[in-house]
Amino acid sequence: MLQYIVKRLLQAVPLLIGVSIIGFAMMHLAPGGPLAIYTLNPTITAQDIERIKHVFGLDQPLYIQYLKWAAGMFTGNWGNTFFGGRPVLDVIMERVPATLLLMGSSMSLAMIIGMLIGILGAVKRYSVFDYLATTGAMVTLSFPTFWFGLMMIFVFALQLGWLPSGGMFTLGEDEDLLDLLQHLILPTVVLALVLVAQWSRYTRSSFLEVIHQDYIRTARSKGISGSRILFRHAFPNAVAPLIALAGIQLPWLFSGALVTETIFGWPGMGRLFVDSLTMKEYPVLMGMIMFTAMAVIIGNLLADVLNAIIDPRIRLN
Amino acid sequence: MPEIAPLPRDPVDIAKRPPEDEGHLRSGNPLVFYESQAKRVWRRFLRHRLAMAGGCAVMLLLLMTLLADLITPHDPLALETARRFIPPFTDSTFLLGTDEMGRDLLSRLIYGGRISLVVGMAAMFATVVTGLIIGLISGFYGGRTDNLLMRFTDTMLSFPQVFLLLVLAAFITPTVISIALIIGLTSWMEVARIIRAQIKHIKEQDFVLAAFALGSSEMRIMFKELLPNAIAPVLVSATLNVANAVLMESYISFLGYGIQPPLASWGNMLTNAQAYFDTATYLAILPGVMITLTVMSFNFLGDGLRDALDPKLRM
Predict the structure, then answer these.
(1) Are B191 and B234 in contact (CB under 8 A)?
(2) What is the dihedral of CA A164, A166, A168, A173, to 10 degrees?
(3) What is the ipTM score, two decimals?
(4) Dihedral sign, Cα of residue A138, residue A143, residue A149, residue A151
(5) Do A226 and B4 touch (CB under 8 A)?
(6) CA–centroid distance for A31 within its chain
(7) What interhelical angle do B266-273 and A145-152 show, nearest 10?
(8) What share of chain A is helix, strand, coil (3-state, %, to 5)?
(9) Greater model confidence, A134 or B130
(10) How close, in Å, is residue A262 to chain B by CA atoms?
(11) Which residues of B touch A133 (CB under 8 A)?
């Protein structure tokens, strides 16, 4: 097991190097380089820019700049923001909890509902429910997240007035848990929508594969009740491969969170990214791209390792 | 705990299952299998009702795109401030009403659709071409080249697409072509993987060995022998890619980095609609419905194609 984890970790190294090269290349592809923003400022002269270039080491050969930058990424020095000069890593880290809360609640909601729909669909294959569920999943996968978010705000916040339309806490009030939960409901549902569709599709096909196997037939012939077969015999085998799905969904989850946070004014990483984009804060943007890519790589690694621990059928080599 | 229905017994199940291969029965002789691959795929596709509906909708959308100049009742950019915020179906000259600047909504939806579809198609093309080249080289040469290209593919898959797209879009001047290109360059990975797997498999077959033995050039083998036999699964992926590209275009246009106003795209129409959300909700509903319908049509079409091309892949 340890050997497997070490091997997977080693495989992640070239990926991370690749990610850093692409990230670095993109920063330097910007017309005018990372300092382009300063050329727009009339109080900064060409000499100033040359001096800043020298201070930041931007007049050195590219590969030296890359190595320095990569070493910085490695030691937690992700550069400073253009406006305010705060460390990029700090700026990102203070937004992580809000995004984690949103992504975690959406993922949990999507897994529970998606699995229930998928299991029911597999057990009652070709029934009206199954037909509606599979078609519904396709329709749901076609929704633009931001539009669905707007529609939810319209119905539940503007028309019915049941839930707040945005933000994380009500302004001017003490931050309490109930308030937070109320603000969390709409973004969670919006972000979970597409995930539910994916979970139900994968759960359905995974269960269909399992419930037609011989050991299930044996269990039936021994007179074990339907629900017991389903949850004690079929469930573990059908669900184990689905753990990988959580890892596969991660890149989408980040993208979806970006859009959801923009719609609902949720103060997470996605909002930070969009705000940084308007202010052309390239150090923050690059930091975010690196951060999310690393999170995806590590998330996938965790999913695979977890899968290997839980599922004894997986051979570790 | 809900009552769980008994698991379907096999014979019933088979009877309920749509018949897969009755093609030979049509020849009149049950022993004669008389149907070309193309014909079988077409027959299977026809049976897939949702895919047919999707296909028809795609045709209509393409037709709408082609004939946009002929069928739009008004100029989509013509401002008429005296007629702002006319609700849909209340005015006979402005069928779907007008927006915050008095522009005809129906015309804007049609022209916006033209842009969305052109971006979707062009992005799909860029995706397929990039994916084909990388997959082909990777699968054909194998070894170190393959390893390097596949690590590159894995790396690209680690980036959340919207993040990458937005950063790229902020660097470039947004035009229909540049948006399509960056969408293509951030979504070719799946096609490359599919092609690579196909090529690896086909490369071992006798007809390819024969081509090698006859002294065909590598280029000839790649493009004349391998590619035509590997293309079918790409068809499915390409169709689903149009759906994804239309979605992505709407995301980045909505966030303000895609197609720029006054040019209409379904995404940027929604950006403007946000400001008048509680008074003129129809402005936000209609473009979203169009995006959903378009993406859904391509998704159903792709799903049907997958079932028709390879029934084993059924979800």
Answers:
(1) yes
(2) -50
(3) 0.83
(4) negative
(5) yes
(6) 29
(7) 30
(8) 75, 0, 20
(9) B130
(10) 9
(11) none
* C-alpha pair distances (Å), A211 with each of A116, A205, A308: 15, 10, 22
Residue of B151, B251, B255 lying closest to A14 (CB–CB): B151
Secondary structure (3-state) at B291:
helix
Q: How many CB atoms lie within 10 A of CB B274?
A: 14
CA atoms within 13 A on the CB side of A142: 26
Asked if the model's pLDDT at residue A14 lies above 70, the reply is yes
- Sort out which chain B residues have CB atoms less than 8 A from A292's CB and list them: 159-160, 163
> Could you tell me if A195 and A145 are in contact, meaning their C-beta atoms sit under 8 angstroms apart?
no
Question: Six-digit token pair at B124?
Answer: 């799909």
Chain B CB contacts of A126 below 8 Å: 16-17
Q: What is the distance, to the nearest Å, from the Cα of residue B235 to the centroid of all Cα atoms in its chain?
A: 10
- E strands, B151-305, are none
The backbone torsions φ and ψ at residue B104, rounded to the nearest 5 degrees and listed phi first, read -70, 125
Q: What Å distances lie between residue B77 and B83, B102, B124, B268, B283, CA to CA?
A: 14, 9, 28, 14, 16
Strand, coil or helix: A110: helix
For the stretch A173-209, pLDDT in tens is 677 777 788 888 899 999 999 899 989 988 998 888 8
Tell me the C-alpha distance between A165 and A178, whole Å. 15
Residues A55-83, buried b or exposed e (16+ Cβ, 10 A)? eeebeeeeeebbeebbeebeeeebbbbbe
Looking up tokens 């859009």 gives A259
What whole-number distance in Å separates Cα of residue B6 and Cα of residue B192? 43
**Contact residues, chain B, for A143 at CB < 8 Å:** 292, 295
In chain B the first and final C-alpha atoms are separated, in Å, by: 27
Sign of the dihedral defined by the CA atoms of residues A76, A77, A79, A85, in that order: positive
Q: Of B312, B309, B139, whose CA–CA distance to B235 is shortest?
A: B309
Both tokens of A257, joined, read: 């969170």
Residue from A107, A260, A258 nearest A196 by CA: A107
Question: Using CA atoms, how far apart are residues B55 and A65, in angstroms rounded to an integer?
Answer: 52
pLDDT, one tens digit per residue, over A22-45 is: 888 877 776 656 666 666 666 777
Asked if B106 contacts B95 with a C-beta cutoff of 8 angstroms, the reply is yes
What residue in A sits closest to B149 (Cα-Cα)?
A18
Query: B312: exposed, middle or buried (C-beta count within 10 Å: 0-12, 13-18, 19+)?
Result: exposed
Q: Which residue of A has its CA nearest to B280?
A: A154
End-to-end, the C-alpha distance of chain A in Å comes to 9
Q: Which of B148, B153, B163, B297 to mutate to test the interface with A (most CBs of A within 10 A)?
A: B163
- Give the CA distances from residue A197 to residues A86, A111, A115, A142, A192, in Å, rounded to whole numbers and listed in that order: 40, 10, 10, 10, 9
Nearest residue in chain A measured CA to CA from B150: A15
- Give the mean pLDDT per block of 10 residues along chain B (315 residues): 42 40 48 61 75 88 83 72 70 69 78 90 94 92 90 90 87 86 92 91 88 88 85 87 92 87 84 78 85 91 82 46
Alpha-carbon distances of B72 from B77, B93, B119, B224, B260, rounded to whole Å = 12, 11, 20, 44, 21
Nearest Cα residue to B116 out of A50, A198, A144, A152? A144
